[in-house]
Structures are given as C-alpha cells and as structure tokens.
C-alpha cells in the first residue's frame, strides 16, 4: 500500500494521484505540484489515503509544498502576468499575420523567463515577433512549437468514444503510433475512424 493524495487543476475535472511526501493535506487546500511543464498550483480533491500500487496507471509525481496565503498571492500575480503576455502576443501574431496559433503562456517561478507555446503547420520565422515580445515584456523569451498531439493534451477534448481524450486523461508521454498497429488490430482504415481530435492516429 502507498499513501497518495488526489488533486485537481484549474479548469480540469479529472483527479490526479500524487505523492504527499509526508505532508497531510485536507480537501480544498492549495498546493504546488510537479508536472511535465514545471511546478503548478493545484487543489486537493481527496485527502491522504492508501491504495494498492497496481491500481495506479501512471507514475506518481510529488506534492512540492503547501501554498500559503503569500504564495497563493504570488501565483495569482503570475497568472495575471501570463494573461497579459498571452493577450499581447496574440495581438502581435494577428497584426503580423503569422501562420501560427498561440496555445499557452507560462512564466517561470522567478518571473525572469516566459515560454510561449504555439502550433503551426510548418516552420515559422518568428524573429520579429520575438523582438516585439522582448521589447515589451523585458524578460527572457522562449517560443516553443508543439505538435498537434501536445496541443490536444493542453486544451483537452472528447474523443470519438465519448470520453476525455487519452492524452489529457492519463498519458504522460507520447509513443509512436503507426498505421501497421491499426492493421494488426483489424481496424477499418478509414481516417475518420482511426484519427483523434488532433488529426493524428488514435493513441489508443
């Protein structure tokens, strides 16, 4: 048996299991947790409890710390800065008529760097956009192009099965999916039947 805590992220109803790291957390408390995109604020949905290891379908990440009132105010400040950076970047992309879509914006905890995630069909020359961002935000800027699957994971959605898409629900990493896999399972090779909302072959 291992001790875990159930947490929820903002705008996401799914409960994720985390290692409390010897902290006792009550439902509704705010905390900072590990994610593949760095530390994020979360809320406790299920207080400490024990579970059999074989009932966990993904690696259990760690709760980093409680969020005190001061820390929570800082997270709120960071969120406001991210919203402003997102709005400015979206305006510059539209003004420059760039063939890219802004997906997410994240400041690092020291507020010295901001990462802009975007999707595009091809490589994009964003040097002028980078100048706009540096001139206005005056911090280190990273523009990171993500795949369609990563895009789907960030925004979520409902698959053709009627459930939350796998990449948003439980997949922590992506593995190569080939048409041969569909053939081996005897699936109809109809793109609308074997493609996910991202337009790529279904992860399942």
Q: What report would you give on this structure?
A:
The protein is of the alpha+beta class and 204 residues long. The chain contains six helices and eight strands. A hairpin with a 5-residue loop joins strand 6 and strand 7.
- How do the helices and strands follow one another from N- to C-terminus? EEEEEHEEHEHHHH
Query: Which range best describes the helical content: under 10%, 10-25%, 25-40%, 40-55%, 55-70% or over 70%?
Result: 25-40%
Which consecutive residue ranges, at least 5 long each, have pLDDT under 50? none
Average residue-wise pLDDT: 86
Strand segment count:
8
Biggest sheet, open or closed, and with what strands and sense? 5 strands, mixed, barrel
Structural class: alpha+beta
Radius of gyration: 20 Å
Give the strand content.
Answer: 25-35%
Strand order of the largest sheet: 1-2-5-3-4
| Terminal Cα span | 29 Å
Helix run count:
6
What characteristic shape results from the CA principal axes? Answer: flat
List strands and helices in order, with pairings.
Elements: E1 2-8, E2 16-19, E3 30-33, E4 40-51, E5 61-66, H1 69-95, E6 101-107, E7 113-119, H2 127-137, E8 140-145, H3 148-155, H4 166-169, H5 179-184, H6 191-194
Parallel strand pairs: 2-5, 7-8
Antiparallel strand pairs: 1-2, 1-4, 3-4, 3-5, 6-7
Helix pairs in contact: 1-2
